[in-house]
């Protein structure tokens, strides 16, 4: 190992550790920070971003990278260099001033969005969103260096993929999704749960379910937040969920979803800790883990049979007679506005809406002043009924307030990846359903850990999925799974 490579690893380790500290500031802001600290936290985040940006643009990185002979390294070393080169190249294109300003503005914008959402007032948020959008357009232009600006932003979340490639996948999915949804919504809707569910008891049960899916609570914790998320990597990976006294599914399935993210991070090879390989390789691959945990495993008939008994033991009668009725309640397709509460069938249509709108925002084909009307028009076209209020429409997601343009399509791409992984998983673990019926997803989570999670950032995103599945990812397995599941469930 060369002196240059050793120096690069040492530098990377310190940069990664500082990045973890910055991430903890973000976790605290979402969970425990007092409301009055928002402006101060914005300055703190800007300062941390300035430090990180300086390290990622350090001229010594170019010197070290030039000295290292890639061919003399093993695949791990070569992957480290690939990530480092990509990160350094992107960082050097963004002025330090701009990186710090984005961090400051988006930190403050998050609180403004939350207040506007609570008051159902998009106009109260619009000036802030306009400022965030302007900064992200500037960043995207700097990163693109004459190429497509949206693709440049997308590369932060799904490197190696273009918006055109994602649009091709979405265009193939949309007709089948719309046709299946129309057939399902023409059938009688299954009954849902009834009653009131103590929120402390929901949190206790959610922690029990998190452990069942392999979440290591000695290296994590479960808290509450307005918008559930997972934060951290390695040996400090935290998740949040939310509770609704009338809807325990919101808490339980948000928890399972975030555990999918967290388990990915916890299960990465410890040898990669504080290196570029020590975190999930992309958001699409990350979402494949959260979605397969939540849907193909967590919403399966055998697992919901076990979960039905857990809810009855915790809350008593819940308004459905048996495990089959509970399975139908978990998977019922119904009209609704909220992406995070959408069923498997309609979820991707929510993503496609956001993907198209944010591409238009970045390209300047759409401005913030017209965004609410554009959202409402598109939603009614896609879903067949109007948005009733901004909190159920353009204000429902935190992503744009914190500058995550390019993030949304990775949710649906993650579903596509999850469909492929589920097909491979069922072939590799043929007796999986008996374990799920006993409340034990470990045969599935063990397979996912060995096939995908332990490798972290070793491979590129699509290569990560292909190595796990044995075939290149495509939308076919997901659509086949959805059509089979909902045709059987609704007797189509």
UniProtKB/TrEMBL annotation:
Keyword tags: Carboxypeptidase, Hydrolase, Metal-binding, Metalloprotease, Protease
Classification via PROSITE patterns: PEPTIDASE_M32
GO terms, molecular function: carboxypeptidase activity
Record EC number: 3.4.17.19
Reactions accelerated catalytically: Release of a C-terminal amino acid with broad specificity, except for -Pro
Domain of life: Bacteria
Pfam family of the protein (one): Peptidase_M32
Task performed by this protein: Broad specificity carboxypetidase that releases amino acids sequentially from the C-terminus, including neutral, aromatic, polar and basic residues.
Family affiliation: Belongs to the peptidase M32 family.
Name of protein: Metal-dependent carboxypeptidase
Organism: Litorisediminicola beolgyonensis
